[in-house]
Write a structure and sequence with these properties.
Elements: H1 3-18, E1 25-30, E2 36-46, E3 57-63, E4 74-76, H2 109-121, H3 131-138, H4 143-155
Antiparallel strand pairs: 1-2, 2-3, 3-4
Length: 164
């Protein structure tokens, strides 16, 4: 791993341990043999209370390249995750994760996870990634969209999510 990427990710890990939003999880992936992969972080984003996302603990993986922080990580939910700004393969479409839009090397893991959580609540109609979810969300009657999200919240409820 690049020295700069490793150094920055080590700093990110220390900063996360000291200060992170309640209920969120972010840590480098640990394999069965005990080795740690600093370029792959396993994260969990809790669904915000009093929203259709409430009750879910949504698994997200951050994949960092050796060029980090010059290049953003790829954020990925499990394949098939239902959201207008998440591709079918799970990749999150968010401006702060796009080097041609709003990525800045100063953006932290904490800011990324908060940004993804905000995207869950407020999809971006001008940057759809998943046609089916986009069409359902865009309809005036949101009951189908809300039902799909609530079903997903049950799927990813705390007791159904595999431990990290």
């Amino acid at each position: 791993m690049s020295g700069l990427a490793h150094q920055r990710l080590s700093q990110e890990r220390k900063a996360w341990r000291k200060d992170h939003p309640f209920g969120y999880v972010a840590k480098p992936k640990t394999y069965a043999d005990g080795s740690v992969d600093m370029l792959r972080w396993q994260c969990r984003i809790p669904g915000k209370n009093s929203t259709i996302w409430e009750g879910g603990l949504y698994p997200l993986e951050l994949e960092f390249s050796k060029e980090y922080p010059a290049h953003p990580p790829v954020a990925r939910f499990p394949a098939g995750f239902f959201h207008p700004n998440v591709y079918d393969n799970g990749k999150v479409c968010l401006s702060i994760l796009n080097p041609e839009k709003a990525w800045q090397p100063s953006i932290s893991v904490k800011q990324i996870l908060i940004g993804v959580a905000e995207l869950l609540l407020t999809p971006n109609n001008s940057d759809a990634a998943q046609d089916n979810a986009y069409r359902i969300f865009k309809k005036k009657d949101r009951s189908v969209y809300e039902r799909m999200v609530r079903s997903q919240a049950q799927k990813y409820a705390d007791e159904n999510v595999q431990p990290l």
